[in-house]
Amino acid sequence: MKKLKTFFSVLIILTLFAGLFLTSRKGGKSIEETEFLFDTVCSITVFSRSDRQAAKDAFDEAAQLHRLSDFFDEISDVSKINKADASEAVKVDESIINMIEIANKINSYSDGAFDITLAPVSVLWKFDAENPIPPTDDEISAALKTSARENIKFDKKSGTVTKAFADTKIDLGAIAKGYAADRAAKILKDAGVKSAIIDFGGNIVTIGKNPKSPDGKWRIGLQTPFAQIGEYSKILKLDEAAIATSGSYQRSFEYEGKLYHHIIDPKTGHPASQSFDSVTITAESAALADALSTAFFVLGEENGKKLVENFGANLDIL
Ligand code: AMP
Ligand code: MG
Predict the structure, then answer these.
(1) Number of other residues whose CB lies within 10 A of the CB of residue 280
(2) What does the pLDDT look like over 95-132, one tens digit per residue?
(3) Domain limits of the chain?
(4) What 3-state DSSP class applies to 249?
(5) Are 65 and 95 in contact, with CB atoms under 8 Å apart?
(6) Which end of the chain is more exposed for a tag (fewer CB within 10 A), N or C?
């Protein structure tokens, strides 16, 4: 049953996520390794047989980060934090502390729009259920009570995380894929890989030049929201870059004719309501692009642009 669910998840995500394509005007073979991690399809493409091992090593690292950050895995570090009592110091892997540190920074720069402590609210929306029903206002306000950046503290020296309330829970779903893509890129670069492209569910890192394109640039297709996979509204032409897309089309359900999507506004506990359907951020790291794209979707165009400019990042709205 789990396998069947995973198979359908792969199909759904293949049809929903931001697209990526590589031009192939030049000869030579690209080698693509694919794995299902972070509840999405993840791929690493290299251009030489000798780079294959590095791609496998990068995937080992990504798989480890997935295990540590998986909200639904009882033995993940995130679950250890979520199950802990108030004031209990929970020892976690350095990567979890790093993600919380970036998340807290974006939380303060976004005036709380990006908030990993929204987990108790996110679970109420049950996006993975077969026939989800929106939660009631009472359920949302109860869940919002323990959500706030201040309720989660970390200590780098001891490698521990402490919560203000037992009910405070974190969800690193809006940053873990980007963080993992950065770590995978580091492993490839350290192994001497000169050209590669990492795509973890639309969180993309490009390394070096695209050996298949005459100008060496990478072409990243921005998926048209709610359209068929492979229908692109825009093609970004980039050198080395880190890119992330957040969109209301990526995970959602319809109830009584209304669409409810997975990016939640911490001020209301409801899906953020915007006039656009997707935002793509190009930033100095994929973790930053990942967090900024989610934050932008909550903030909207005006405040979102200010946030993105603060970090010297670029954006494309569809
Ligand atoms: P992304 O696809 O990177 O935009 O991340 C969306 C995921 O992050 C959701 O599926 C939730 O698990 C979580 N999430 C939803 N709203 C927020 C928010 N305002 N801040 C941080 N994480 C969120
Ligand atoms: Mg994100």
Answers:
(1) 25
(2) 999 999 999 999 999 999 999 999 999 999 999 888 99
(3) 3-317
(4) coil
(5) yes
(6) N
Residues 194, 235, 57, CA angle at the centre, nearest 5°?
30
Residue with tokens 């980060």: 65
How far apart are the CA of 220 and the centre of ligand 1, in A?
22
Ligand 1 lined by 264 (C-beta under 6 Å): yes
Greatest Cα pair distance in the chain: 60
Q: Which of 262, 279, 307 maximizes ligand 1 atoms within 8 Å of its Cβ, making it the mutation to test the pocket?
A: 262
Tens digits of residue pLDDT in 32-62: 999 999 999 999 999 999 999 999 999 999 9
CB 122 less than 6 A from any atom of ligand 1: yes
Say how many Å lie between the CA of residue 295 and the centre of ligand 1.
Answer: 8
Atom in ligand 1 nearest the alpha carbon of residue 290 = 3
The amino acid at 294: T
Nearest Cα residue to 111 out of 317, 300, 281: 300
* CATH code of domain 3-317: 3.10.520.10
Residue 249, pLDDT > 70, answer yes
Nearest to 254 by CA among 127, 145, 162, 156: 127
**Strand pairing report for 152-155 and 218-223:** unpaired
